Inverse folding.
């Protein structure tokens, strides 16, 4: 009986977790537990991405194409009723972001002239969900969190709970951006790049306060917004641009307050 019990304990200890179980481990405050969950999910993902919820780009591309010309409600049904991610409207149309699953996003272009039809879209783009876990107040060392496929999302260097650096990754393993801290205060310029190396945004800080020029880029790498900061507040001209470079919005700020809702392009 004792031998049977020992064998049962050994087999139970070696049992691989399910995808849901391993994913729940990513939210653990125990670094070892998070690591084990990440390793298990990585193995599952390598064998079959669908096992952890990734339907794949081709799956969604086929469905996105089928939404063109359809009423928005019908189009969203084809996409499995995705989650809204915000958007912009103007000129008789709206561009709205949608989360298709835990791995893919899309932007749909919808008419707002009364017919409410989908007249275009972007191709599905990768945007993997990650699981945030806050480090203990006095933690010293490297604090890691992960994407839902087990890939490393963030690596934070802490000393008695004070940040020294933060590196954020794409699930491919490429660095998205890196932040540096002085006495726990963000300091220096931070440039974020997408998985293909195209700039996403750029910001500059001086001992925790945003300064200088801040930029946001369109997915094609062209400038979307340029703003100026001083002492952590908007100061000067803010402009938005279309992907083609046309000014679409302009305003003037003083100490974070709008002083002119329009300005010369």
């Amino acid at each position: 009986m004792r031998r049977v019990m020992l064998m049962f304990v050994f087999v139970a200890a070696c049992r691989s977790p399910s995808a849901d179980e391993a994913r729940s481990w990513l939210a653990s405050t125990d670094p070892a537990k998070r690591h084990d969950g990440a390793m298990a999910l990585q193995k599952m993902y390598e064998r079959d991405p669908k096992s952890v919820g990734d339907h794949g780009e081709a799956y969604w591309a086929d469905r996105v194409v089928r939404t063109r010309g359809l009423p928005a409600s019908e189009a969203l049904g084809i996409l499995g009723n995705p989650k809204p991610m915000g958007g912009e409207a103007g000129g008789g149309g709206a561009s709205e972001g949608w989360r298709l699953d835990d791995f893919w996003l899309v932007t749909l272009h919808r008419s707002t002239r009364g017919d409410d039809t989908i007249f275009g879209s972007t191709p599905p783009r990768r945007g993997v969900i990650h699981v945030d876990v806050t480090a203990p107040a006095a933690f010293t060392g490297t604090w890691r969190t992960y994407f839902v496929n087990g890939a490393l999302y963030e690596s934070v260097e802490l000393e008695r709970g004070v940040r020294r650096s933060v590196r954020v990754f794409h699930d491919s393993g490429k660095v998205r951006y890196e932040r540096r801290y002085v006495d726990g205060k963000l300091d220096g310029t931070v440039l974020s790049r997408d998985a293909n190396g195209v700039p996403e945004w750029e910001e500059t800080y001086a001992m925790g306060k945003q300064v200088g020029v801040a930029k946001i880029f369109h997915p094609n790498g062209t400038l979307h917004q340029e703003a100026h900061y001083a002492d952590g507040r908007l100061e000067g001209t803010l402009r938005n641009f279309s992907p083609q470079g046309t000014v679409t919005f302009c305003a003037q700020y003083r100490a974070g307050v709008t002083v002119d809702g329009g300005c010369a392009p």
Summary: The longest strand covers residues 209-217.
